[in-house]
Write a structure and sequence with these properties.
7 strands; 238 residues; 16% strand; alpha/beta
Length: 238
Amino acid sequence: MSGGVVALVPAWNEEGTVGRVVREIREALPGAMVVVIDDGSEDDTAGAARRAGAVVLRLPHNLGIGAAMQTGYRYAREKGFDAAVQVDGDGQHIPAEIPRLLEALEEGADLAVGSRFHERGDYRSPWARRAGILFFSLTVSLLAGRRFRDTTSGFRAANRRVIEFFAREYPSDYPEPEAILILSRAGYAVREVPARLRERGGGSSSITAVRGVYYMIKVFLALVMGTLRRAPRKGGGE
């Protein structure tokens, strides 16, 4: 990949884990740039990331994962990277698995999604979360017309075409399932790749039980409404 690889790490109040995540990415991908998008953290997430060797893009307020990732994709587009890998700042994703995602891009995928449910790994999320993952996987599979097993995984790699697309258009709230559906409708090749995950290294998920129900309803409506819109054009937005 002549333009290189950038690792995009969205982080909100991940001071306790983001440094380790950055160091592990640098070990797994020695030639890659690591960019942490600090989504308005109130702790020293930005400082911990810089001390570990990352470039830090700091948002003035907590804008959410969608805005954070679109900021990262715009940075990747402006710098001319060939591939962008998304790795969460909480330590759940294992950077040593990144080469498998990049191999999928080299084999023709436009977006490679690290799936917890493809044969590998012993990580088991709580039952409520598994139910939500199953719900969105079935919904996206139905609307996209093909089977997806892990649409909520934020561990993914995008090639230059998808970087360009996401720099222009990216869902705002809890965007992972909607992003897969948008790309599928636009004709991009989305492929799931077996990937191991582990327990988060610190902090807590922003998705509580109440917010989880709200999240499911909101994203479900966004998915359904999205299919009523004209399909985005591959390489050209809508």
